[in-house]
Amino acid sequence: MLIKIAKPSDLRESDVTPESVYLSRRRFMGGLAGLGAGLALSGTAKASADYSDVPDGDAPAWLQGKIDSSRRRAVVPADPETDAIAPFRDASGYNNFYEFGSSKSDPARHADRLETQPWSVVIDGEVNNGGRFNLEDFASPSRFEERIYRLRCVEAWSMVIPWLGISLADVIQRAEPTSKAKYVRFETLVDPEQMPAQDSAFSLIDWPYVEGLRLDEAMHPLTLLALGMYGRELPNQNGAPLRLVVPWKYGFKSIKSIVRISLVEEQPVNSWQRIAPDEYGFYANVNPEVDHPRWSQATERRLPNSLFNPNTLDTRMFNGYADEVAELYAGMDLRKHF
Ligand code: MTE
Predict the structure, then answer these.
(1) Atom 16 (ligand 1) nearest CA
(2) Which residues pair with 50 in a beta bridge?
(3) Can you name the CATH fold of 86-329?
(4) In Å, how far from its chain's centre is CA 122?
């Protein structure tokens, strides 16, 4: 987050699509069908990926059952060249998870210390039906779906990742928000025994890692609570056992290893905004026209890449999901509300 990455380039237009794809536990086959209600998407899907490098997970039986029987619905990037699904080893080996250190390889190296079973999530604040729920009770009433999304980090790298999860809107509806609920605030676990960098004297973050969404953003059908990726449960370094995925926002909004979801009246202050309010805002919508003060956001490095193939793409407004989400921000000055 506090580093500079250079990149120039060009790319062509692509779009999310109305089709879903058949995604087996090991192989993505590319069959087409209709997308879930509520999403108005356009385009045509063509995508393929090989999951042969995905190691077996260790999901509890209830979650494995949900994963196996998920409806395999996916919002699929349209361009199989520029939007190829990242190999699992990249998605699980190049991470930001500052609770385990600040280098990209730290999370994969240290996150096995995180104990994800059992896990509970608190829902509180402006709700009539809150409480502490074990993960199974929290997630299993919701329909599991597979979603292939672009993830665009504020540091100007990106990947395409097939997530597995539940709609945040469904969880919020069940909690029965009161009329005072205007925002949703999320918190990551705090436990330096399991998350060693939380004890580091060099850490910039005032733990817990906190994120927030406006209620209508949280209720948007693209907003996912992920419990898996690549047809298996989440690896710890990717935010097991429960993380947020908001595909039109910079990756730092997608908070990992969530233990608390609070419906609140006031706009939360998220962790990166607290550290550097001139650099990281509350909205953090992907926007190629609003540069980070220390680097351009016009392009991105699509992973995997190499010295010989930098794979630099033009960044698209709302990460290419403008048709679905632009109306949430109608009339807002996006330079001010960055
Ligand atoms: N959540 C927590 N709790 N701690 C973090 O450091 N990093 C964020 C986000 N969620 C982070 C987090 C950032 S900066 C990014 S880009 C994404 O996680 C990266 O997700 P990935 O490692 O699964 O690609």
Answers:
(1) 251
(2) 27
(3) Sulfite Oxidase; Chain A, domain 2 (3.90.420)
(4) 20
Is the model's pTM score more than 0.70? yes
Could you identify the atom of ligand 1 that is nearest to the CA of residue 205? 6
Q: Where are the domains of the chain?
A: 86-329
Tokens 């990726």 sit on residue: 229
Tokens representing 278 are 């001139």
Q: Token pair for residue 40?
A: 């108005």
Task: Note down pLDDT in tens along the chain; length 338 residues.
Answer: 653 333 322 222 222 222 222 222 222 222 222 333 333 333 333 344 557 779 999 999 999 999 988 866 566 666 777 898 999 999 999 999 999 999 999 999 999 999 999 999 999 999 999 999 999 999 999 999 999 999 999 999 999 999 999 999 999 999 999 999 999 999 999 999 999 999 999 999 999 999 999 999 999 999 999 999 999 999 999 999 999 999 999 999 999 999 999 999 999 999 999 999 999 999 999 999 999 999 999 999 999 999 999 999 999 999 999 999 999 999 999 999 99
Q: Is 253 in the pocket of ligand 1 (CB under 6 A)?
A: no
Tokens standing for 246?
Answer: 């908001």
Is the distance from the beta carbon of residue 311 to the nearest atom of ligand 1 less than 6 Å? no
> 251 CB less than 6 Å from ligand 1?
yes
Q: Which residues of 13-45 are buried (b: 16+ CB within 10 A; e: fewer)?
A: ebbbbbbbbebeeeebebeeeebeeebebebeb
